[in-house]
Amino acid sequence: MRIEATLRALSDLTRLRIMRLLAHMELAVGELAQVLGQSQPRVSRHVRILCDAGLAERRKEGNWVFVRSAIGEGLAPPLGDAAARLLAVSELEDAAFSSRCNEDRRHLAAIRADRSAKAEAWFSRHAEEWDTLRLLHCPDEPVEAALTSALAADGVKASLGALLDVGTGTGRMAELFAPHADHVTALDRNPEMLHVARARLQKFPAGKVDLVQGDFAVLPFGDAAFDTVLFHQVLHYAQEPGVVLAEAARVTRPGGTLAIVDFAAHDREELRERHAHARLGFSDEQMLALFSEAGFASRPAIALPGTPLTVKIWTATRQAGTGKVMKRATVSKAKNP
């Protein structure tokens, strides 16, 4: 960061308002325009100036562009931290600016309500499909309780550290484990699912949870970026599970934990046709082989029988220097250019 670029970027009231909004939550450019009462092209120009100065970050998610703050809480170099403190103090000391910021935050309530309404509409459209699948296995509550126990089995880790929730879907796993992690990254390839997850996760502080669009076979993260990697009812969509777990190994730190929640091997062919499952569950032998090849040391599996499907929880520890880890150049989170 450069002082002249930072001060130039903060020399406009609209950009100051944007930075205070982003201190509370990540917002789409269109949502910022709605709160600010300005046109989307005009807001986009302000966002570009803030991003060029290193104060904010953009990333594309489907047809939407989301913006988040890049400063505060140790996210930036000292100059960025100083800028974050300046903005916070300015709101406390400048009555007119404080009034404007409070009004902007009141408009955020409408944004949150709109996100929640769209999420409810999505659930209504898909409720019958989800209910049909749920009837085939045990309820979610005991699965979540068993997974929580499995991840805390060591009794040593006070936190799950940096957690990657692969195929986050509606964001339920990210919601469940965010209080136990330093930071959560929720990844899904479907923009509509990310919108649903965003409505669920918007209650967490800015910077606690990142939502990222991406493919589980080509994760958009650098090597050894996470302490815990979770696949909850996701791996059965993989045509090549070994490739997916090799990517998981690449982004997991040595000593880190991989957790997979999926179905035990079954013969319900209708799940291929109606729900696009590429794999009809996994046997313990298959999972042990997948773990070993990717460089994970397996732990005892947990079975939760249902009618007719059994849910299994497999956990493993990333071993240093083992497994066929896919070597790729370090990739940062995708941002809109």
Description of the structure:
- The chain has 337 residues and is α/β, with parallel strands linked by helices.
- It has two domains: 3-109, Arc Repressor Mutant, subunit A (Orthogonal Bundle); 136-318, Rossmann fold (3-Layer(aba) Sandwich), CATH 3.40.50.
- The protein is 45% helix and 19% strand.
- It is built from twelve helices and eleven strands.
- The protein has helices spanning 3-9, 13-22, 29-36, 40-52, 78-93, 95-134, 140-151, 172-177, 191-201, 241-251, 270-275, 284-294, and strands at residues 27-28, 56-61, 64-69, 162-166, 183-188, 209-213, 226-232, 252-263, 296-298, 302-304, 311-318.
- The strands form two sheets. Strands 4, 5, 6, 7, 8, 9, 10 and 11 form an eight-stranded mixed sheet that branches.
- Helix 9 links the parallel strand 5 (183-188) and strand 6 (209-213).
- Helix 3 crosses helix 6 (95-134).
- The longest helix has 40 residues, at 95-134.
- The relative contact order is 0.11.
Could you provide a short overview of the structure?
The protein has 337 residues and is α/β, with parallel strands linked by helices. It contains twelve helices and eleven strands.
Per-chain topology:
Elements: H1 3-9, H2 13-22, E1 27-28, H3 29-36, H4 40-52, E2 56-61, E3 64-69, H5 78-93, H6 95-134, H7 140-151, E4 162-166, H8 172-177, E5 183-188, H9 191-201, E6 209-213, E7 226-232, H10 241-251, E8 252-263, H11 270-275, H12 284-294, E9 296-298, E10 302-304, E11 311-318
Parallel strand pairs: 4-5, 4-7, 5-6, 7-8
Antiparallel strand pairs: 1-3, 2-3, 8-11, 9-11, 10-11
Helix pairs in contact: 2-4, 3-4, 3-6, 5-6, 6-9, 10-12
